[in-house]
Amino acid sequence: MAILPIRIAGDPVLREKAKKIRKVDDPSLQQLIDDMVATMHNAPGVGLAAPQVGVSLRVVVIETPDDGLMALINPEVVKSSGERRLMEGCLSVPGYQAEITRSKQVTVKALDRDGKEVRIKATETLLAQALEHEIDHINGILYIDHLDSADELIPIRPSIDDADPQEAEVSLA
Ligand code: NI
Questions:
Q1: Domain range for residue 75?
Q2: The one catalytic residue among 83, 99, 134, 169
Q3: In which order are the strands placed within the sheet that holds 154-155?
Q4: Is residue 4, in this structure, part of any structural domain at all?
Q5: How remote is the CA of residue 164 from the centroid of ligand 1, in Å?
Q6: Does 169 reside within a domain?
Q7: 55 C-alpha vs ligand 1 centroid, how far in Å?
Q8: Residue 16 backbone phi and psi in degrees, to 5
Q9: How far, in Å, is the centroid of ligand 1 from the Cα of 90?
Q10: What is the CATH number of the domain that holds 57?
Q11: Known catalytic membership, residue 134
Q12: Ligand 1 centroid, distance to 158 Cα (angstroms)
């Protein structure tokens, strides 16, 4: 497993519509997933999409305390409803967070890393937020695109050492 460099906003790969995976049973895809999990843990973050490590493929990994670790291939939102305001951050937009609007309930269809079809329904959880955030990534969208103005970005204190726990709760994905 390797920790991969994370691409930062401004990198064109983050703006591409990522390509669909045709073959799940591929050692290089399985390797990519393992590397993405290692990179997400190292960051640390709640989620990571393949374009964030420079790979324009529809693969995301997410890990939350309540729902555990999942790798999703070709994920798509099949249903979403409601609205809620949430603080959000992104590993590709370091140093900032902002409040944005996400859905209350999200249903996602995907393949797991074994190629089995999965359907995930998340309601008002960190998972629901992360699913929308990561699926945005594979469509070339960053959370900052949901803001009316860059003035809404709030700087996060740079030093991890003196970060207060409240701030640490903002999900970086
Ligand atoms: Ni992100």
A1: 12-158
A2: 134
A3: 84-88, 96-102, 154-155
A4: no
A5: 21
A6: no
A7: 14
A8: -80, 150
A9: 4
A10: 3.90.45.10
A11: yes
A12: 18
Residue by residue, pLDDT tens for the chain (173 residues) are: 899 999 999 999 999 999 999 999 999 999 999 999 999 999 999 999 999 999 999 999 999 999 999 999 999 999 999 999 999 999 999 999 999 999 999 999 999 999 999 999 999 999 999 999 999 999 999 999 999 999 999 998 765 555 554 555 566 88
Q: The tokens 């700087």 sit on which residue? A: 155
Predicted TM-score (pTM) of the model is 0.93
- Strand partners of residue 101: 85
User: CA 63 to CA 99: how far, in whole Å?
Assistant: 21
Across the beta sheet with 105-111, the strand order is: 47-49, 59-64, 68-81, 105-111, 117-123
The total of structural domains in the chain comes to 1
Q: Is 7 within a domain?
A: no
The Cα–Cα gap between 32 and 149 comes to 35
Q: Is residue 2 part of a domain?
A: no
